[in-house]
Design a protein that fits this description.
The chain is 52% helix and 18% strand. It contains 9 helices and 12 strands. It has a 5-stranded antiparallel beta sheet with strand order 2-1-5-4-3, with helices on one face. Helix 4 runs antiparallel to helix 5.
């Protein structure tokens, strides 16, 4: 076992704290028991002194060891009263003394000085069984045994508690980019360990989803970049095959320039997806006017609207301000309006609405080609484009709606899309 393992640290802490508690308990118990025994001895000697005072003249039933003191002089003492240095105790302000027995550490002697009406009585009791010392010896033996027993039990309990954690460690070592199939069995007890295991298993699922998404992303990026790069490479090879006229070189350069711009747009869009996260998006928020941004974006698309003779109908627009990322709000409006124009036929209408009740609503509805029902759940996926849009006349990479969805979710919003094939599409954003 590692010297710095969690179990060793817990046992050291537990052993130290338990040893301190046992020591504190022993000292307290010794103190209170000693005081209790001494008080009992004192009371017994006090009662003996009173009995001696009452019965001294008759000498009846007196079995105690005592001495009578008058004017600081011993006037009478029993034959077995052999206490030395009596004057020292008489001059002391205390009336009760516990004396150690020089002959045996297991016994103690006690002295009590009773000041009566006529004289003082010194009661002396020898060879009292030292129960406190017996208890001390018992505790010195029992405490280490008890401490070892508690540490042993704690070790077993810690092993039981750490078993699920060992399973987590074992599973974590087995997990790799190519292996997310392993999960940890849930324990029966509904406690923090099960919560940890549930969180770990959920993390495994998230990692698996993330790796799958990354694989799809890499595949999609490779596919999207392959086409313009192939075109560029082909143009260069054809152009370099033989000497050509200047206008042919110019045509090749224009083709290369166009495909390069396509690659640039793909890269810019991909970088945009990774710039903001749930953790840092709030730092970019500022108070912005949603209606002003919408009108500004609408003006930018007036040329595209005019080219297809599409009428932009603003059904309802209210003055609304909210804390948001201005760039992403602009991107939401731009992508949705750009999609509506691209997929609308000529001489149609696009309807816009922006209003607030319980939530903020932005609605854009077109009369375009629409989307088939079975494709609605996929159109917000990265690089996904419906079959009808796969032609050279409609540009795009399948990133627009994905970016819109991500931007809306970063603002804790929701997006709903309803569409009918060959009739049009309605997109509603809720903040």
């Amino acid at each position: 076992m590692k010297s710095n393992s969690l179990k060793i640290k817990l046992l050291l802490w537990f052993g130290g704290i338990t040893a301190f508690i046992l020591l504190l308990f022993s000292i307290s118990f010794y103190y209170f028991l000693s005081n209790s025994i001494n008080d009992n001895i004192k009371i017994q000697l006090q009662h003996q002194a009173i009995d001696i005072e009452n019965s001294f003249e008759t000498q009846k039933n007196i079995t105690a060891t005592f001495a009578i003191i008058e004017h600081n002089k011993v006037t009478y003492k029993t034959a077995d009263f052999d206490l030395q240095n009596l004057d020292f105790y008489l001059q002391n302000s205390h009336s009760f003394f516990i004396l150690s027995d020089e002959e045996s550490s297991e016994n103690i002697n006690a002295l009590y000085i009773y000041k009566g009406k006529k004289n003082s009585i010194v009661v002396y009791k020898k060879n009292i069984d030292n129960k406190v010392e017996d208890l001390t010896s018992t505790l010195l033996i029992l405490n280490p045994i008890l401490l070892l027993l508690l540490i042993f039990m704690a070790s077993k309990m810690i092993d039981k508690i750490l078993d699920p954690i060992h399973n987590v460690i074992k599973t974590a070592k087995e997990i790799s980019v190519n292996n997310f199939s392993t999960t940890i069995p849930r324990p029966k007890e509904d406690d923090e360990i099960r919560e940890l295991i549930d969180s770990f298993n959920a993390m495994i699922e998230r990692l698996k989803d993330g790796v799958d998404a990354l694989d799809r992303f890499n595949s999609d990026v490779s596919h999207e970049l392959k086409t313009p790069l192939t075109v560029i490479l082909g143009e260069i090879e054809v152009t370099l095959r033989k000497q050509r006229e200047s206008h042919e070189y110019e045509k090749s350069m224009r083709t290369i320039h166009y495909e390069t711009l396509q690659i640039q747009k793909i890269v810019e869009n991909l970088l945009l997806l990774t710039r903001y996260t749930k953790e840092n998006i709030a730092d970019s928020f500022e108070l912005c006017s949603l209606n002003e941004i919408l009108l500004h974006v609408s003006e930018k698309y007036s040329k595209q609207l005019g080219a297809k003779n599409i009428t932009l109908m603003i059904d309802k627009i209210e003055k609304i301000s909210m804390m948001a990322n201005i760039s992403l709000i602009t991107l939401i409006y731009s992508n949705l309006l750009d999609n509506a124009i691209k997929y609308s036929e000529t001489n149609t209408k696009i309807h816009l609405s922006l209003y607030k009740n319980e939530a903020i609503h932005f609605i854009i509805e077109d009369e375009g080609i629409g989307i088939a029902k079975e494709q609605l759940s996929k159109i917000t996926e990265r690089f996904y484009r419906v079959d009808e849009s796969r032609n050279k006349k409609i540009e795009g990479f399948g990133l627009g709606l994905f970016i819109v969805k991500q931007s809306v979710e970063l603002h804790n919003g929701a997006m709903h899309i309803n569409s009918t094939l060959d009739k049009g599409t309605k997109v509603e954003i809720l903040f």
